[in-house]
Amino acid sequence: MEYSIITQDDLQGLADFELAQARVKNALNLAGAEGAVGLLRFFARYTSWNGFFGSGVASLSGKIGRSRTMFVDQTVAERLLNDRSVFIASFFFDAARDEFDDRDTEYRDTHRCLAQATLAGLLRYARQQGYAASTAELNKMLNEPAWLKTLNAKVAQGYGNGSEDNRDAIMAAIGYHLGSEILADREFSMIDEYLRKEQKEVTRFLKKAKQEIAGQSHPCYQWLQIHSGHGGAAEADHFEWATKGAELAFTYSPKKEHAAMRASLDHGFQTFARHHKTFFEAIVR
After folding, report:
1. Which run of H or E residues covers position 56?
2. pLDDT band at 1 (very low <50, low <70, confident <90, very high)
3. Residue 235 has what pLDDT?
4. Which residues make beta-bridge pairs with 217?
5. What pLDDT, in 10s, does the model give residues 38-78?
6. Residues near 121 by Cβ (< 8 Å), separated by ≥ 6?
7. Which pairs count as long-range contacts for 20-27, CB under 8 Å and 24+ apart, including other chains?
8. 5 in helix, strand or coil?
């Protein structure tokens, strides 16, 4: 068996992708049925959870990069010349680079700032529709529930925070990241499609609106557009980079380690799939 070849079809055998998409669709329909306030609550929780993944992949890049003696080019005898850990890490850091500054504009558009612009646009739309809650009432409604705080903490663990810098932990974290990218690409595309087809008035408002965050003006729909497969497909790009990085981790590891490495990667992927299930089952409670 060739453990180092990683494809979407291969990973799809580790989780029920159709059921995962059904959960996303159901959550969107339930949120949309509540109108502007339901959508605001949905996206407040979604951006809370989603916002921790950029920091997670940045941590993963450092975790891989530190592991110099683990990922080695065996064709090079000189030890000071043969470590490839930072080279491998660079393929994961590409995703972190986008998260901390999207390169589509000249501004420092962190994906967190773009997500906050989307939330601000939704809040403005809700108020335009008659939502008149005070700031205190709004903060109470949008306060992160206990289940979400717990799940957010698990994102850091999924990306390897607190674990040793060994092959098992690194490959599990790589698998977790692969899961986050492949499932996020699908869910962002579904969210974008749902809004454009089922929430046309909201979508028109967000596409016209801009919001100043951190001293810069951000289009309120940009965060959704750049992640959707119908737009910038950022998550699909990140998945391709991560796949290349994962395959290089096998290339620069002894073959006797490959079976265990792939088992750890698959375990990490399945861990994310479980977290994804938990989130979309709980988001509209």
Report:
1. helix 53-65
2. low
3. 58
4. 212
5. 999 999 999 999 999 999 999 999 999 999 999 999 999 99
6. 205, 206, 209, 211, 220, 221
7. 20/183, 20/186, 20/187, 20/273, 20/276, 20/277, 20/280, 21/186, 21/187, 21/190, 23/277, 23/280, 23/281, 24/186, 24/187, 24/190, 24/191, 24/280, 25/190, 25/194, 26/280, 27/280, 27/283, 27/284
8. coil
